Amino acid sequence: MAIIKTDGLTKRFGDFTAVDHLSISVEPGSIFAFLGANGSGKSTTIRMLIGVLRPTAGRVEVDGVDVISQPRRVRDRIGYMGQKVSLYQGLSLRENVEFYAGLFDLAGNQLERRWGELRERFELGDAETEKADDLPAGVRQRAGLALATLHRPRLLFLDEPTAGVDVHHRGVFWDLIQDEAAAGVTVFVTTHFLEEADFCDWVAFINAGRLIANAEPSALRQRYSDGYRVEIDLPAAERAPAMTWLTQIGDRIEATPTGLRLTLPILDAEALAALDRVRASCADARVRIEQAPMTDVFHRLVATTP
4-215 — its CATH code? Predict the structure, then answer.
């Protein structure tokens, strides 16, 4: 049973339609990426999902709760982190922890145990006494996620959580997100970094308020890209024998200055076996596999959507 479900979810601001009849479902324990360009309707959608913005039309249910009729009940079940991490300036990180704990009736030994776990896991011990406004961006980001999970929610809503953070800290942050999902938490994440879709189980693309794709990342690549590009470095004498294996899995083969290039719509067991035979037949063979960037998928998707 879906833990998040919308049916015809719509939000208008005057004559402007920010979200247009959105229908999605999210499976428990999955990482669901909600992708699109800036201004596409991502943040408006997430605000409706967490009950802080009332829809113009449609239905939305989160963890079995009707969000429109019972928004407060929903907020007790979720964790939320936005692009601007909600740490109170002028307070230390520890003081922020105590404030957030109070919202969920966490105190005493129960709070100490839970914060001790998070402080160690998110590597926040050295920052605990620092003022929130003095924390580096990467530390603020980890602290924001720690506070969002303080009360052990079943659902995490992350709205542009890696905006303004360098590539290294984005990678660290996604490791933490995947840890949450592995523990059974459902993660709904919006981002304009389209390459982050590869960290997710499911991807929905929104454009100008409308849902234009909703599938696994591999299925989107298969439909909206040329597939996988395989570069094979081979000595000239080994190229003809390699073609024997490669023509069994594809016909889009071309010569390159260092060997052969093959384009495959899917990378299945048969294709991998053929590439292994090429490697085994030539000790000097080097095989590199590249998948289409999700940015390319999105651009082709937008171009082919009416």
Answer: 3.40.50.300
User: Residue 26 and residue 44: Cα distance in Å, rounded?
Assistant: 18
* Domain made up of 222-304: CATH architecture: 2-Layer Sandwich (3.30)
Among residues 216, 222, 195, 219, the alpha carbon closest in space to that of 204 is found at 216
Over the stretch 249-287, which tens digit does the pLDDT of each residue have?
Answer: 888 899 999 999 999 888 889 999 989 988 888 888 899
**Nearest-angstrom CA–CA distance, 87 and 140:** 8
Residues near 134 by Cβ (< 8 Å), separated by ≥ 6? none
Tokens of 181: 């999902």
Query: pTM for the complete prediction?
Result: 0.86
| 126 Cβ contact partners less than 8 Å away, ≥ 6 residues apart | none
* Spatial separation of the C-alpha atoms in residues 269 and 29, rounded to whole Å: 27
Instruction: Give the Cα-Cα-Cα angle 55, 49, 162 (nearest 5 degrees).
Output: 125
Distance CA 126, CA 218 (A): 40
* Structure-token match 């479900």, residue found: 5
